[in-house]
Amino acid sequence: MDTFRRSGLTFDVRDSGPADGPVVVCLHGFPQDAGAYDALTPLLTAEGLRVLAPDQRGYSPGARPAGRSPYTLRETVDDVVALLDAAGVERAHVVGHDWGGAVAWAFAGRRADRTASLTALSTPHPAAAVHSLTRSTQALRSWYMAGFQLPRLPERLLLADDGARLRRALVTSGLEESRADHYTRRMLEPGALTAALAWYRAIPLGRGFSAGVIRVPTTLVHGRRDPFFSPTAVRATGRYVRGPFRSVGVDIGHWVPEQVPERVAEVVLSAVRRG
Known about the structure:
alpha/beta
């Protein structure tokens, strides 16, 4: 399958590997797309897994609704349900990075019946991140999220000079230049950055980051030098998992799927074999 539909929106999806293999759903974050998993996917399909990597809402050109209310976690979780339904899949191993990690946590918490395992990349449990705001450097690390609440100004700043500021921010945070170039080009598409920022602007709506208690096998793979998430949030994550849980630290920054795909593949394959 190349696309799936939900509520009049058309999502692009990369469907790789044998159709009858165990299914892994890979969810990207900001400002990525499904290409964040280009290095991971062949490592998984070589072991007989089917990988579904969608461009999430706001990132697929056919799924860019206006406003911020369409970008709550309730909507993004239901997008994953629609993907599984369209693919004819009952349960999947869910992998998520950055905002995709927030969706993965919420999906595992709310739809444990459809979740075989959870692998969160970089992103601590949302409640752990909130817990750490007043107990660590997390508030300082998250300052940009408050800035993104402003209308129009973030788009002007980040997209000026063909996205030079956005590209520079990505490279400074540790992302390789070729990948930063790719993500910046995608954000220059009409309406793309506004839709991507709508994920942040939707936080004050509804239940925000709520994910609940996780009862499926879970692994957090985190960069020890991640500039966006504090060690306190990482350490607190286990409090919110009642299923089997482990935390795996790697000596990099934020961009786990792009930089250590082999380590991520080991974690996912271990979860599949246990499952």
